[in-house]
Design goal:
There is one protein chain. By secondary structure, this protein is mainly alpha-helical. The protein has one domain. Helices cover 61% and strands 8% of the residues. The chain has five helices and three strands. Strands 1-2-3 form a three-stranded antiparallel β-sheet, with helices on one face. A hairpin with a 2-residue loop joins strand 2 and strand 3. This is DUF4260 domain-containing protein. It comes from Leeuwenhoekiella nanhaiensis. InterPro entries: DUF4260 (IPR025356).
């Protein structure tokens, strides 16, 4: 089952890469912004509850989809880019075993305990 979930996330990451390729931007934007959602880990400075909430919010693939679709609707390149980055980053994290966090600690994820 884990391999099937990873395969699904690889497909999601490839979709994000494809969507980015449809934008008229240099690939440096994708590479430069790819790890930006991880800044949400700063929430852990205020405890595990706030840390888990902030991390999870910026690692929701649905947030990425909503931002991307809003960008299409409003013809906003910034929203499209933000959506693609969040969506792609979340897929990559899940491939690597970083799931959405529980309030009990950073290593407790919906994919199981990390490490």
């Amino acid at each position: 089952m884990k391999q099937l979930l990873k395969l699904e996330e690889i497909g999601s990451l490839l979709l994000g890469v494809y969507l980015f390729s449809s934008l008229d931007l240099s690939w440096w934007w994708f590479y430069g912004l790819f790890l930006l959602p991880d800044i949400s880990m700063l929430g852990y400075l205020f405890g595990t509850k706030i840390g888990a909430w902030s991390y999870n919010f910026f690692h929701l693939k649905i947030l990425g989809l909503v931002l991307f679709l809003s960008g299409l609707y409003f013809e906003s390149l910034v929203l499209q880019l933000a959506g693609i980055i969040i969506y792609s980053h979340a897929a990559f994290d899940r491939i690597m075993g970083y799931g959405l966090k529980y309030e009990t600690g950073f290593k407790d994820t919906h994919l199981g305990k990390m490490g």
